[in-house]
Description:
Number of strands: 0
Number of helices: 7
Number of domains: 1
CATH topology: Methane Monooxygenase Hydroxylase, Chain G, domain 1
Structural class: mainly alpha
Largest sheet: none
Distance between the termini: 40 Å
Amino acid sequence: MMRNRFDTQLDILNNSLISMGALCENAISGAVKALLDNDMSLSKKVLATEAEIDQKEKDIESLCLKLLLQQHPVAGDLRLISAALKMITDMERIGDQAADIAEIVAYVDLTDNINKLHISDMATATIKMVTDSIDAFVKRDLKLAEEVIAYDDVVDELFCKIKKDVISLITNNQKDGEQFVDIIMIAKYLERIGDHATNIAEWVVFSITGEHKEQ
């Protein structure tokens, strides 16, 4: 009976993490779309989504602590709950990075230069990492978690490519130098989102194997 109740609460935890992951995905895609279209109203929605992510983190943290205190989980379950607590910290930070991108839209129009770069590709790659890392947790899929960790190289390569392209654009267009600094910052935020998704995947590996290897 106790185990049935525990399993029900674990299902709630999984669904809450999926929901928080979906909010993170919406925040990243919304922030980048706001940037590419110079859409102020969309950037405000991203900030509202960030507030939802913060609330979700508090709710999941509360659920995890309840599971730890009331259910006295055994080793495997304990690892799973501990991993969830670590994951939501990274997910909350992903929301912060997306909000940082959205805030740039409020004070500068980058549409002349941003579409010449691989920002959209980088956002797609980071969203894939976030989605897959949470799927790996819910499905207990070690292979998928390891694929997420390896995929961070794709995001890092896009970051390097954007940096090189920006240097080339600055050489030919010095008047927009300040804009290019903002673009590098945006790429850096996306690169950090990739790092947080990698962290999530590493905690998934820990929850399954008991080993936590940082890259």
